[in-house]
Design goal:
elongated; mainly alpha; Arc Repressor Mutant, subunit A; single chain; about 150 residues
């Protein structure tokens, strides 16, 4: 499975929003500058995130975006599924209910693809946005300390 730019940039932008909001609205322009992502592209991504109920928007001069739920209640898997759709290593719709699957194909599906999907979903559903913010802050603090040593 390969995540699209939409999924990768969307997760980066959500982490940036969570790390820099401190309860206030954050403009797309500021996220775009910090993450070096096109503001126009972020508008498309945030439109999807807003429709999925992951962010709330406020229009106007002091407007911007805020995370809809507390970061501890926002799973990485939820964000990625909103942007990417089903997280699967193979297109399951091609094989589901296919009576013509050979025993070899079925063996691979059960023992490889299904297990890979299970592992992938387990990882993204075990991580919250708050987990990423905490790790980001730890890494950021360590890099500052390393810089001054």
């Amino acid at each position: 499975m390969k995540l699209s730019t939409k999924g990768r940039y969307g997760l980066r932008a959500m982490l940036d929003l969570a790390a820099h909001s401190s309860g206030d609205h954050v403009s797309l322009n500021s996220i775009a500058e910090r993450q070096n992502i096109s503001e126009n592209y972020l508008e498309q991504v945030f439109s999807i995130l807003r429709k999925a109920g992951l962010v709330k928007s406020v229009k106007g001069a002091q407007g911007g975006y805020v995370i809809a739920n507390h970061p501890s209640n926002t799973k990485v898997g939820t964000i990625l599924r909103a942007l990417e759709g089903n997280l699967s290593v193979v297109d399951e719709s091609l094989e589901e209910g296919d009576a013509s699957l050979t025993s070899i194909q079925n063996c691979i599906k059960i023992n490889v693809w299904d297990k890979m999907n299970e592992g992938l979903n387990q990882v993204v559903d075990s991580l919250t946005l708050e987990d990423l913010v905490n790790e980001y802050r730890k890494m950021n603090d360590q890099s500052v300390l390393m810089f001054y040593i």
